[in-house]
Design goal:
alpha+beta; 8 helices; 7 strands
Length: 351
């Protein structure tokens, strides 16, 4: 339960505490590549990775992408950060798992902590991922195995596209572009579900409110993720010194994709808000109809109960008490009273 997670306060800045809940596996994947070749290696321990990275010859001739899985292993994360010259303040933000995005641009590094939302086995899932790019290395941090960057890895291995022909800045653009494309893909995937809910709400069909809440939750995560990333992309476009080795055309294309995703998600969010309000209104109207019917029945049986009480009193002399047809006359009188009241309610348009 999220409420039972301990959140330490008033700690020294730079104190590393993992605030997530995923504790499975730890690995470091490293990709070295240039125009002529690419190498991919996996390490289960930080010490073996550091030993390899220190002893690797001619590493200045290669572009380096390091992917670290398993943020729960704080000691190893700290060792990796020290080896790659990543400050403890940045590592602290990486381990501070949250739905809110962090996007920072400096002359010597770019840093993003964002929600990676994508479709996995026809299910929409999200994961907190961090991207750190310095002048000579790009590092991605994630809680668990699996991400949306497999296509980029395949392009590196198979020398497809421009990734092996371009500098490190282009790799960073590719990762951000993959994130933007998946935001838009998820938004497009949600559209049929929103339209289905809209039809049910218009028809007044019965449905579970959990369906609406799940969609609103996903859209909220998407909105929290896309808007900060969109502003960050605009910042990269405005300042040529932040990503100098990437063509403006690529960033403009990424900016366009992000704006499309943001617009679509905002539209869907507004639609879900209106559908939720209409859903609540429909339920209220249905309840009012039920209460109206019950009230009408109660109003009809009040005089009938009164008549039954009057003729059921234990007096020796009552009109029609000894009449053989008295019971039937009483039933006819009750029926006429009930029908008359229904007719009156209908004329008054009370139902």
């Amino acid at each position: 339960n999220e409420k039972n997670i301990f959140r330490p306060r008033n700690l020294i800045p730079g104190t590393l505490i993992y605030k997530g809940r995923v504790k499975q596996g730890y690995s470091i994947d490293i990709h070295y590549y240039n125009k002529h070749e690419s190498k991919t290696l996996s390490f289960e321990s930080t010490s073996s990775f550091i030993d390899f990275d220190v002893s690797f010859n001619d590493k200045d001739d290669y572009i380096k992408w390091i992917n670290i899985t398993g943020l729960w292993n704080i000691n190893d994360i700290k060792k990796v950060g020290a080896h790659l010259n990543i400050s403890d303040l940045i590592l602290e933000e990486i381990l501070n798992i949250s739905t809110h995005s962090i996007n920072r641009a400096r002359k010597d590094y770019l840093f993003n902590c964002i929600q990676m939302v994508y479709i996995d086995n026809r299910e929409i899932t999200n994961e907190y991922i961090s991207i750190y790019k310095s002048s000579d290395v790009l590092v991605t941090f994630q809680e668990k195995p699996g991400d949306i960057f497999d296509d980029i890895r395949n392009r590196i291995r198979n020398n497809e596209g421009l990734v092996r022909q371009k500098p490190l800045d282009y790799l960073y653009f590719c990762l951000m572009d993959a994130l933007g494309d998946n935001y838009l893909a998820v938004a497009e995937r949600l559209q049929p579900s929103i339209e289905d809910i809209e039809e049910k709400v218009i028809r007044g069909d019965r449905m579970k409110i959990q369906v609406i809440h799940e969609l609103r939750k996903i859209l909220m995560i998407l909105e929290f993720s896309t808007e900060p990333v969109g502003k960050f992309i605009q910042l990269l476009l405005e300042d040529d010194t932040l990503l100098p080795k990437t063509d403006r055309y690529f960033l403009e294309s990424l900016d366009t994709h992000m704006k499309q995703a943001i617009s679509e998600i905002k539209l869907q969010n507004d639609s879900m808000d209106h559908l939720f309000e209409n859903f609540v209104l429909n339920n209220s109207n249905n309840m009012n109809q039920v209460m109206t019917i019950l009230t009408i029945f109660s109003a009809i049986f009040i005089p009938l109960s009164f008549l039954a009480g009057v003729f059921g009193m234990n007096f020796d002399y009552l009109p029609g008490l000894h009449n053989r047809m008295g019971f039937f006359y009483f039933l006819i009188g009750c029926g006429v009273t009930a029908v008359g009241m229904l007719a009156l309610f209908k004329i008054k348009k009370w139902f």
